[in-house]
Amino acid sequence: MRIVLIIVGLLVTVIAVAAIMIRRLDHDAAVWHVDPLVAAKPSTPNSYRVGPDGTTEADAMAATFALSAADLAVNFDAIARGAGTAVVGGSVAEGHVTYVQTSGLFGFPDYVSVKFIEIDAANSTLAIFSRSRLGKSDLGVNKKRVEAWLGQLRS
């Protein structure tokens, strides 16, 4: 019985230390703030990309919005920040932002890079590349996040 308690105690300790280490990861903009139009796709299936027609390796086509690129960026930023993200690099003013959003229990970080593209003065589109930093599978979280944010943007 004592051995079982020691093993359980060690497992709990290892899980707690891992959770603390994951939550303390550095979000280096030089690594994670990428151009969603040309960033390389990870070798693991834990990413999702939306882009305008012709975007390399896009999983879905981006819509055209009846907004200037600047207004689209402001609206998107409000949705992303409302979801509890933090900015890793770039800015709305630059028209290119990378956000980090962490999972609730362990704090696994996902990075969402967005570029706002002006079509003309009254219309714009965007490119989004959402990917997990850790693990092999994201259980569809990146796709669900991007589709939810785009759904809010459309309404």
CATH superfamily: Kinase associated domain 1, KA1
User: What percent strand?
Assistant: 25-35%
Task: Determine the N-to-C terminus distance.
Answer: 58 Å
Radius of gyration: 18 Å
Note poorly predicted spans: none
Strand arrangement within the widest β-sheet reads: 2-1-6-5-4-3
User: How many structurally independent domains?
Assistant: 1
N-to-C order of helices and strands? HHEEHEEEEH
The coarse overall form would be elongated
The helicity comes to: 25-40%
Largest sheet: 6 strands, mixed
Average predicted local confidence, pLDDT:
92
CATH class: Alpha Beta
Q: Pairing-aware structural class of the strands and helices?
A: alpha+beta
The CATH architecture: 2-Layer Sandwich
By CATH, the topology is TATA-Binding Protein
Number of helices: 4
Q: Count of DSSP E strands?
A: 6
Task: Show the helix and strand layout.
Layout: H1 2-23, H2 29-32, E1 47-51, E2 60-61, H3 69-82, E3 86-91, E4 96-102, E5 109-120, E6 123-132, H4 141-154
Parallel strand pairs: 1-2
Antiparallel strand pairs: 1-6, 3-4, 4-5, 5-6
Structure, described:
- This protein is α+β, with helices and mostly antiparallel strands and 155 residues long.
- It has one domain (27-154): Kinase associated domain 1, KA1 (TATA-Binding Protein), CATH 3.30.310.80.
- It has four helices and six strands.
- It has a six-stranded mixed beta sheet with strand order 2-1-6-5-4-3.
- A hairpin with a 6-residue loop joins strand 4 (96-102) and strand 5 (109-120).
- Helix 3 (69-82) crosses helix 4.
- The longest helix is centred in the first third of the chain and has 22 residues, at 2-23.
- The model has no long low-confidence stretch (mean pLDDT 92).
